[in-house]
Amino acid sequence: MIIKQRTNRGRAPKAPINGNIEATEVRLIAADGEQVGIVSIEDALKAAEEASLDLVQVTNSDPVVCKIMDYGKKVFEEKKAKAAAKKKQKQVQVKEVKFRPGTEEGDYQVKLRNLVRFLENGDRGKITIRFRGREMAHQEIGMQLMNRVEADIEELAQVEQRPKMEGRQMTMVVAPRKKK
Q1: What is the enclosing helix (H) or strand (E) of 35?
Q2: Which of 25, 64, 106, 118 has minimal CB crowding within 10 Å?
């Protein structure tokens, strides 16, 4: 029966530790961060064993830099830092608000309030005005509506993409202003 050894599938290659370090001389850094200097690999392994810690290869320079540390603790802290960085990241979405050339005042205020809420949450906003039938002949009404929206959200957002026609609809993209 042949047993296949598991490979490091999909994971980042681990730093060589203890007996896996392929160097004869290493620049050794003690557990407290103090530079010991260039020593043979046997002396470095002996020092790590005396401290009941691991000898971990930090960089692959000449000579190889190794540090005496608890490897399990290092891996755990790296995972924790990576998770914290991922948690901190915010995905910016583009939220769309649709208008029509004949949008009345009440509906306009509701849609504007939603757009303001999106911008306050840090998302970008896409304002779309859809033209149907004979409304295409009065695109200036759409442009007036876009200018009105732009004026109403001026202190909250900046225009990222000026209003432009795309087929039967006019679009404009706004992004939240950077907080000072």
Answers
A1: strand 35-40
A2: 106
The CATH architecture to which 94-176 belongs is 2-Layer Sandwich (3.30)
Distance of alpha carbon 51 from the chain centroid: 39
> CA nearest 111: which of 92, 121, 97, 126?
97
Location of structure tokens 């802290």: 77
Residue spans of the domains in the chain: they are: 18-76, 94-176
Concatenating the DSSP letter of every residue in 84-110 gives: HHHHH-----EEEEEE-TT--HHHHHH
* CA–CA separation, 98 and 89 (whole Å): 29
Count CB neighbours of 146 within 10 A: 21
Mean model confidence pLDDT for the chain: 84
Residue 2 has pLDDT above 70, yes or no: no
Beta carbons of 180 and 155 less than 8 angstroms apart: no
Neighbour tally for 127: CB within 10 Å: 24
DSSP, collapsed to helix, strand or coil, labels residue 180 as coil
pLDDT tens column, 72-126: 888 888 899 998 888 887 777 888 999 998 889 999 999 999 999 998 888 899 9
Report the alpha-carbon angle 119-124-129, nearest 5: 100
CB neighbour class for 108 (10 Å; exposed up to 12, middle 13-18, buried from 19): middle
Model pTM? 0.52
